[in-house]
Amino acid sequence: MSSLIKSYVKHGVKKIGEGTYGEAYRGEDGVVMKIVPMGGDALVNGEVQMGPGEIRSETSILKALTALRDHEADENAKNFTDGFIRLLDASVCRGPYSKKLLEAWDKYASTGASENEKPDDLPSNQLYISFACDDGGTDLEHFELRSMTETVAMLFQIVVALSVAEEASQFEHRDLHWGNVLIKRTRTKQKRAKLNGVELNIQTSGLDVTIIDFTLSRLTTEDGDAFCDLNADPELFAGPKGHCQSETYRRMKRVTKGKWNKYCPKTNALWLHYLADTVLEQKDFNVTAEDKQRLVAFRKRALDYKSAGEIVFDELFSGIWTSGKKN
Prior knowledge:
Number of domains: 2
Largest sheet: 5 strands, antiparallel
Strand content: 15-25%
Number of helices: 8
Distance between the termini: 46 Å
Mean pLDDT: 94
CATH superfamily of the largest domain: Transferase(Phosphotransferase) domain 1
Radius of gyration: 19 Å
CATH architecture of the largest domain: Orthogonal Bundle
Strand order of the largest sheet: 1-2-3-5-4
Shape: globular
Order of helices and strands: HEEEHEHEEHEEEEEEHHHHE
């Protein structure tokens, strides 16, 4: 692992987040690494380590979504979006956990933010997969939204990214909680996307939004369907009643009927319902009573949509985008 760290961390490193299966670190050189133990017998945070098949699936999804960014340079491309994180490299390594990363892990844990077990007791011959990606910014949980305009712009960028990926690759995220939405401020007033040949010009309101973490996602590739069998993790559906994230997993199971290989884009709409609920209940920003009611109404409508693609035309986003030529 030490040689891998040297490749992407020239200077300091900071732990910035964690998931059930791994840890995320940011180097000072603008690269974020997701480090995931794989294929071993030791439990990770009480869970069985991800196997080679699951790793292949996530890697395939990351590569396909990164390709949607690259399509912007292709005038003949039917679909493109920069709404998903760019994969720079995926590498497998073996060895003891990096001391530099463990120091960063301890510093993160000292803030009380960590729920994971420290990865220092994993075997010295442990295998890891490392995903090196662009730095997408701060997650929605910790990002300060300042206005209704920013909130709507943030939601719409997510809607467009999901819609493009639905059209291009029958994509479902299936775990789009507020830790998997990254935001950073930008001076760029508009961004472009293309959906089924139609160019979209999107007002950013000064935000650049990126979706991450495709461990539970589903996507169709030339080689078949890449997906995670969520039936193997019954605890995912056992969260507290009335908790929106927990209810979203259960809603997904109902609409998919537990057939996780099948394409069911309504799951994306369910997560957009969750995100609307999250900004209403968990985020504090300047909003009038009228605008808050608009968000409440959207939260309700989102449950009735069959895909993110349908939500592009929702009244909440009227005036935030225009369409151009179709090829």
